[in-house]
Structures are given as structure tokens and as C-alpha cells.
Amino acid sequence: SIWILDIATKQARHLTGGSALQITNGNPNGFFRPSWSPDGQWIAFSSDRLTEWTGHESGAGAGHRQRVSIYIIHPDGTGLKRLTEGDASTGTPQWSPDSRRVIFYEMQAASLRTPGAGSPGQTPGTISEIFSWDIATGERTELPSGPGAKVKPQLLPGGRVGYLLKSAPRDSTLTPGIAYSDGAKGIAGTLVRSPSWSPDGSRLLYERHSFVARPQGQLLYSWDADFEYRYTDVFPMFSSDNRLVTTDLNSTMGNPQTSISTWNSDGYTGRKRIFWDPSGSAMMAAWSPDGKQVV
Predict the structure, then answer these.
(1) 33, 46 in Cβ contact below 8 A?
(2) What angle do CA 153, 158, 164 make, to 5 degrees?
(3) Does pLDDT of 280 surpass 80?
(4) 132: number of CA atoms within 13 Å, CB side?
(5) Do the beta carbons of residue 48 and residue 28 sit within 8 Å?
(6) Least packed by Cβ within 10 Å: which of 43, 206, 238, 285?
């Protein structure tokens, strides 16, 4: 669902909670990627409402082909309009600077299988196109863009379109990452996500995922000055004499060869790797009451 929060009062209002939007028969009822128009009059979002489950396990399991459409609504919950519909999926709506058009991607619903099928557009060979929709006239226009699976488009000054290239065509020399409709290259990498350009197009905000394990005990940011937060590996447990045991998750992806280690009471010094078998994974060790054995 989509909520509007008043920052001053901290009061939240359920924008998509009205009976005109909510689906109550058990079919898909998700509301995603809200985007406020620059003039403050509209909020665009994508939704899979008014669709059917298509996967295994009575339709709601793995293999579901998520078909989403673009909608706009006034911030007070009135004026709901559905902009796109059909067999394709359209998503990540963004506004033109003059608030007259909504920019979005379109790809085949088969590329949006969920859950358990990876991120939308991640599979090599997936293709999407970028369109704009004039909210006054209903005119739909395909915008110039490059090949591959393109999401999170944004109209930039001069008519350029910036977007995230999730995957490149097979046998292509293109690299996933930030790309532009005029062929210019941006930040590269398959773990780059959620680009957002400043209004003048001169700056880019994005996130980059990392699956590199942090060192045990690495100091983390604390929201509370009275507490110190440090990173620990998975399944930690203290013994009766305040020693820590952890599972050493050496890789955060796939099926790693995990081992078991103990640490001093501070949780990050005096490591002893007490068990490791390269033929498999050892996990979730628990102390005996006297602290002399683990199971």
C-alpha cells in the first residue's frame, strides 16, 4: 500500500486504502513505486490490482507472472485514473518536469515472474521499452532509448532519458548499470540500483549493493548514543561464561562452506575456528550449559 506522511505532524494517511482501490477477493493487490508530480497535484504509482494469480500453488506460488499497470491519483485520494493496461507490465513511473507526462518502462509480464525468479529484467535477453503518457490528452509516445532491459527512466534536460540498464542483450558489449538514451555511459555494474537525477540533471543519486562479508565486530552506525552497534556473523549465541559462538558465513550467496568459530566476550577478538568440514556446511551451533561443548 501507499501512505502519505505529514512530516511536521508525523501523521500518516492511507492513500490506497479506499474501497475504490482495494481488492478483497484474494487476487493481487499491490501498490508500488509512488512518484509525486512536481506541481504537487498528482501521485503516480504502479499496481497489480485487477489481475489474476498465474503461478503454481493455486496461482500465488513460484512462476507468477506479475502484470502491473500505471495509475495516477490526487494526493487527497480522488481522481484515480488508470493509464496503462493490457498483457505487458509497466512500472517505475516518473514525471516530466512540467508535470504533464508520466515516464515509465514496459516489458512482457513473463519477465516479471515472482517470487523466487530474481529481480525484474535481470535475465539476459529481457527487453523493455520506455514510454511517456500525456495525462491531459492520453497520448502515448515511445521515447528513444537503447537496447536491453531498462527500468527507472527519468526525463532529463535537453530531452535525454536516463535509466537503469538491468541486463544487456545476449552477445552485446553493453554493461548493465546507468545508461542514457544518447548513448552516454554512466556508473556500471550489475549491483547498481534506484537511480535518481537532480532536476537539472547534473547530479545522480543511486545505491550500490554489496555482498562482501564485513569483518567480525566492525563498528556500525548507532541511532542511539547510549548503544554501540557492531557487526556479527550469523546465529550468534553466548555461553554461560560469556564466550560467543557464530556460524562463519563466508559467502552471502549460494550454498557456502560454513564453519563454526568462538570469540571472546567482546564478540570480535580471540577467534578460534573450532570446526570446519569442506564437504558441507556447519551451522547454528548452541552451547552446552557448562560452556564446554557445542552442538
Answers:
(1) yes
(2) 20
(3) no
(4) 21
(5) yes
(6) 238
